[in-house]
Amino acid sequence: MPKVGMPDIRKPQLVKATMAVIERVGLHAASISLISREAGVSTGIINHYFGGKHGLLEETMRAILREHAQTVMTTLADYPLDAHKDRINAIVKANFSGYQARSEVAKTWIAFWSFSMHDPQLLRLQRINEKRLISHLLIELKPLLPKPLAQRVAQGIAALIDGFWLRGTLNQQGINTEEASFIISDYLEHQLAHAAQATQ
């Protein structure tokens, strides 16, 4: 965590520099020296306010999570509370558009994803993001499906989002947002239709 007193202008500057360096050389090669040079600050600034590379990585992940949460909430605000299918599709769209779709953000996400397996604090942040996604989906799915099925479909949609993210980030063309949204929407329609038939 950054220390109290860290100038607000410095944090986004350093987060941006961290993502740019990770995009260029990867997480393991993203040294404090490279990041400080990218940001135009001394290495002492990073060490003083963040306690080194790990603290800066944690702040970068938190910044990405905050931006993502804001994107989801802003997208959902365009739809009535009872438009559950539209709101699910909006949640999906928010995962593939805007800030999240930028190359440096996507590559940083993937880097953190793999790194979090060996880092308890980053894993905790990743779990928070995962639970937030499932929670958003369940709010919209529970009025449409029985609770056990709603939970299963929420997990299915989350897995599809993660899968398209992974494949798209590893692809030079990036994430095909239209294809991802169509396939996930099709999966949802099939689940809803299957549930409706089962109750007849």
TrEMBL record:
Species assigned in the record: Vibrio palustris
Entry-linked HAMAP family: HTH_type_BetI
Matching NCBIfam families: betaine_BetI (TIGR03384), PRK00767.1 (NF001978)
BP GO annotations: glycine betaine biosynthetic process from choline; negative regulation of DNA-templated transcription
Location of the DNA-binding region in this protein: 31-50
Domain HTH tetR-type stretches: 8-68
Coiled-coil positions: none
Alphabetic keyword roster: DNA-binding, Repressor, Transcription, Transcription regulation
Protein function: Repressor involved in choline regulation of the bet genes.
UniProt-recorded name of the protein: HTH-type transcriptional regulator BetI
Pathway(s) annotated for this protein in UniProt: Amine and polyamine biosynthesis; betaine biosynthesis via choline pathway [regulation]
Top-level division of the source organism's lineage: Bacteria
An annotated Gene Ontology molecular function: transcription cis-regulatory region binding
PANTHER family from the UniProt entry: HTH-TYPE TRANSCRIPTIONAL REGULATOR BETI (PTHR30055:SF234), HTH-TYPE TRANSCRIPTIONAL REGULATOR RUTR (PTHR30055)
InterPro entries for the chain: BetI_C, DNA-bd_HTH_TetR-type_CS, Homeodomain-like_sf, HTH-type_TetR-like_transc_reg, HTH_TetR, Tet_transcr_reg_TetR-rel_C_sf, Tscrpt_rep_BetI
